[in-house]
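Hi team,

As requested, here is the filled-out complex form for the zinc ion run. I kept the field names the same as last time so the parser does not choke. Let me know if anything looks off before we queue the next batch.

— J.
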Amino acid sequence: MGYTFTLLLALALLHIARGASVGQDSRIRYDNYSVYKIKYESLGQRNLLRQLAEDRNNFRLWHEAKDELHLMISPYGLPEFQAEVLKANVSAEIFIPNVQELIDVETDENSRASSDDFGWKKYNSLAEIEAWLDDILARYPVITEGFVLGTSYEGRTIRGLKISYKSGNPGVFIESNIHAREWITSATATWLINQFLTSEDPLVRTLAESHDWYIVPVLNVDGFVYTHEKDRMWRKTRQPSEISACVGVDPNRNYDSHWMENGGASSNPCAEDYGGPHAFSEPEIQAMSDFVGSIKEKLNVMLAFHSYSQLLLSPYGHTKEEYPENFDDLMEVAKAYGDAVEAFPYGTVYRYGSAAGILYPASGATNDWAYNEQGIEISYTIEFRDTGRYGFILPPAHIVPNAEEALIGITALLDKCKTLGYLELKYNL
Ligand SMILES: *[C@@H]1O[C@H](CO)[C@@H](O)[C@H](O)[C@H]1NC(C)=O
Ligand SMILES: *[C@@H]1O[C@H](CO)[C@@H](O)[C@H](O)[C@H]1NC(C)=O
Ligand SMILES: [Zn+2]
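And here is what came back:
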């Protein structure tokens, strides 16, 4: 009796401490978790609110910009949140009242779409993406070539696809789904692959055939599988920590380029932007570094796909006191992307700037590393739809429109790169 009571009490406490509960199919549930947009003016206000995110059980950071924070809050954390909002005298606006509701709708739509029909009406699992890649490789043996980046912490193969119609093309590398919960990125990357191979639109044909494409649809394979099977809101890798019970590292803070400088990543293993015990501690990022390093002469452009907030972010991420030598060009190229997307029927607006300038210092990210350490002079993080209405749980109906915008944006971006002389070969044929 006493034992049962203690056990129940312990379970109840565990439940409260963990915040999220576990559903019947062992997925973590987010019932009544809300997401708030908090606007602030001063650094003091920001720091007060930012501190909440240190308690990751009740508060999870979704998006952070210079003047704005998006926080997911557990129902248990609401009273503390309201008190802090009053104390800091900031305005907070709810935009997702119940995260689980969005996840449920998404799960329904994913299961309603036929599972043996790979397409873009739903979000595909890693197994589905890999089977589809195999199919592509079998159908287009001359134009496509599979490559392997390496092996993840949990032992999965990290795969990529090269598309090349002829020799002598400038190279474009697309890294996608380094952050596990950003499902729109791999959906967009696979849609682009399909367009490059099957589109009959002359503009797409020219784009596809006049560049060599190196596309990694899912870089953070362990995290991605985890978001499908266990926790939809997972961001990091899945390697355990030696100093904490918290699992995983922010892979986009783990590159050896100004690693952990200027508070550009957290040293707290429980933080969403934990930089890791050392640079390249994550096998996925070491693998990416080895592979890109081995072909860097062939690469003119690096694009890292993320969501959400509709931004193009150029180097530098580690500081806003300095700007890259070709910053004006980087902004002109980013503007070309933004203008093209905005002129498209959906009228979606993208902003652009350096990562540190427009958001906050973030060091050790792919785009900075590619620019600083690999000599790839055109290098961006692209944050796709939306600006917060759905955040990471973007409904599948957005997949194709978002991907169309990426296609039109990348076309304009590469046209501008060519005009500015960035697509010259760096090696002898
Ligand atoms: C969510 O909130 C509603 C309304 O307050 C409540 O009725 C419901 O029981 C809550 N659900 C869970 C799982 O806590
Ligand atoms: C709170 O902010 C508002 C406007 O942002 C300002 O007018 C007011 O004086 C502030 N109150 C305190 C106590 O700082
Ligand atoms: Zn991201």
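Two things worth flagging: The CA atoms of residues 261 and 363 lie 6 Å apart. Residues 31-32 surround 2-acetamido-2-deoxy-beta-D-glucopyranose (ligand 1) (CB under 6 Å).

Thanks,
J.
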